[in-house]
Each structure stands twice: as C-alpha cells, then as structure tokens.
Amino acid sequence: MRFGVCCNPDRAKAVLEAGFDYVEAPALAVATGVVPRGTEVTNLFVFTDLKLVGPEKGDIGEYGRDLIPKAAQLGVQVMVIGSGGARRAPEGYSVEKATEEFLEAIQTMHSIAQPLGVTVAPESLRREETNVGNDLGVLAGELAARGCAFTADSYHVLAQQGGKKPTAAFWKKEVPFAPAHVHLATRERTWRVAEDPALIPFVARLRDLGYDGRVSLEVRWDDFEGELTSAREQIVRLFSS
Questions:
Q1: Looking at the predicted structure, is the pLDDT value of residue 48 above 80?
Q2: Which of 82, 11, 75 is nearest to 48 (CA)?
Q3: What are the pLDDT digits (tens) for 202-233?
Q4: Biggest distance spanned by C-alpha atoms of the chain
Q5: Residue 23 — φ and ψ, nearest 5°?
Q6: Quick one: pLDDT at residue 234?
Q7: CA-CA distance, 58 to 38, in Å (whole number)?
Q8: Which of 12, 96, 156, 173 is least enclosed by beta carbons within 10 angstroms?
C-alpha cells in the first residue's frame, strides 16, 4: 500500500518530507510542465471550459492526445477524472444522454492512456457537484462494461449515505470490485481518518478485494505542513487496524 496527498505542486516537497510515498497533483501541472518530484497520480483532469457532455461538448480526444502522453513521460501512472462542472448535464439536457457521453469520453481517454501504461480512473461525485456519475456502484459497473477503471472516493460515497451509518453491505454494493485508485477523507473531509468509524468497513472492503494500490488523502487542512505528520500517522493506523 502506498500513501499520498492531493496537493498543489508548491506543497509537494513538504508531503514527501513528511514520509508520504507520492504526490497527487492537478493535471494542469502536467499541461504546464510544472510537475513536482514524486507525482504518481493526477486529479482535476479537465476544467469546466472543456465540456465532456452536452450541446457545447468539446474535443476530448484532442485534449487527451496532448495531455496523457506528457503525463506518461513524467511518470504519472493514474489520472483521476472528477471534473464535475465539465460532466454536468446542462438544464434541459437529458442526464441519461449526458451519462452516455461521459462514458464515451472515458473510453476515448482509456484508449489513449492504456498503451502508455497510464490508468484513467473516474470517481463518483456528490450531487452538489454534478448530476452525472453520482453513485459509485453504478458508475463502477458502467465503466467496467467498457473495460475502464474507477477511483473509490470515501468522502463522495459517504455523501450518498447522508447521516446514515454505512454498513459492510453498503460498501460491498458501492465498491463491487477492486478500484484502480482510492481517495480518502472522513465524512467531514478531514484527515482524522482513524477516528471515523464509517471508514472501518470501507477499509475492510478494500482488504477483502485485495486492494494494495495507492491511497491519497484528499482533505481540508488548517495548517498543511504542521498537520502532515499526524495525517500520515492516522492513515497508517487506519490501514493497520
């Protein structure tokens, strides 16, 4: 298991010095060539100005053919696709059609990335962020049917439950098979993951599936550099329990 942190490039050095194994940086860093040492994963794949769905849909193929080879050359191995604004179905547009367009865009990215040794792994997002791909279990199945991978993000999946206690059966449904990547945060999006009982069955589900990949903290910070060591202790404790 490898543990990392989602952060901007200027914070990467502090992450590695705190003992984390890698950095997860915005894909924009790849596009601009400002990729810090230790970057193995990217997020923020596209921004809202490049639409993946709808009547203003852009050319995702051209974008991917430019970005993904650069990422591969820089050592990036996983590219997470959240990009809620880019994949949101606009008002009056069919969500079903938008979902199909989103999945087609992922297939296009997958076809570019796979020969380069890069895994494209979309994540589910909260309904406040988008109206396409909100339920992880459904999204994972739709992606698998197209030969594509997914990211399991605990914060987003916990949002599906609202205030309910997530059971082992819930996690089995939402994480039906092993993800390609994991984002980790508490329900409140903090780094105190070992103190959140909702994450115990999530980690148990990953263990049952034999997951032994990367886990990135994607959380809010009050004192980034001052909290990194404690955050790493929390994630190690959670996965050691």
A1: no
A2: 82
A3: 999 999 999 999 999 999 999 999 999 999 99
A4: 49
A5: -120, 145
A6: 98
A7: 31
A8: 96
* Residue spans per domain, the chain: 2-240
HEC per residue, 190-224: CCCHHHCHHHHHHHHHHHHCCCCCEEEECCCCCCH
- Residue 217 to residue 233: CA distance in whole angstroms: 12
From residue 118, alpha-carbon distances to 40, 80, 223 in Å are 10, 11, 33
Among the listed residues 143, 226, 221, the one whose alpha carbon sits nearest the alpha carbon of residue 177: 143
Cα–Cα dist 205/172, whole Å: 7
- Name every residue whose Cβ is closer than 8 Å to that of residue 182 and which is 6 or more positions away in sequence: 151, 152, 153, 154, 206, 211, 213, 214, 215, 216
Which whole-number Å values give the CA distances from 150 to 3, 8, 103, 128, 232, in the listed order?
A: 18, 22, 12, 20, 24
- Give the pLDDT mean for 68-84: 96
pTM as predicted: 0.97
**Token match 């997958």: residue?**
110
CATH label, 2-240, candidates 2.170.270.10, 3.20.20.150, 3.40.190.10, 3.40.640.10: 3.20.20.150
Integer Cα distance of 195 and 213 in angstroms: 22
How far is residue 230's CA from residue 241's CA, in Å, rounded to a whole number? 17
DSSP E strand stretches across 32-187: 39-43, 78-81, 119-122, 151-153, 181-184
pLDDT of 29 strictly over 80: yes
Q: Which residues are registered as beta bridge partners of 22?
A: 4
CA-CA distances (angstroms) from residue 182 to 1, 65, 78, 217? 11, 25, 11, 9
